[in-house]
Design a protein that fits this description.
Oligomer: single chain
Distance between the termini: 47 Å
Helix content: 55-70%
Bound molecules: zinc ion
Length: 131
């Protein structure tokens, strides 16, 4: 294959965007992003960024752990919500259940889950996960 701009020169790579042969002089980009022109390079970089965003969104590859930490904070938050609501419910109906330490214990547990979920959420944010 010859370079698309220099008919006599042998191509040393193929543009990843349009498939044209390019010689050493015309080649743009890096080893895993070969392009024949600035426009092709721009498109390739855009596609690569799109892929990275999709990976983040769907939790693929290096972002798998991110996805997991994101699920963590949601489940911790829900646990916190359940315990606080349940604790408040017991306090609200204390005339039925009688006064005890159980209600305070459950609400405290709920608050602990809220704190954990916040820590998880902050960790996810630091790693660049957009919720
Ligand atoms: Zn090209
Ligand atoms: Zn060339």
């Amino acid at each position: 294959m010859e370079c698309y701009q220099h008919i006599k020169k042998m191509a040393c790579g193929i543009c990843s965007e349009c498939g044209k042969g390019v010689c050493k002089e015309c080649i743009l980009g890096s080893e895993n992003l070969l392009a024949c022109s600035a426009e092709c390079l721009k498109l390739l970089i855009e596609k690569k960024e799109m892929n990275e965003q999709a990976k983040k969104l769907y939790g693929i590859g290096q972002y798998a752990s991110l996805k997991r930490s994101n699920a963590d904070w949601i489940s911790m938050f829900l646990l916190g919500l359940i315990f606080t609501v349940y604790g408040s419910y017991i306090i609200y109906n204390s005339h039925i259940y009688g006064k005890g330490n159980l209600d305070i214990f459950i609400i405290a547990l709920g608050l602990i889950f809220f704190v954990i979920s916040f820590l998880y959420w902050r960790r996810g944010k630091k790693l660049g996960f957009k919720v």
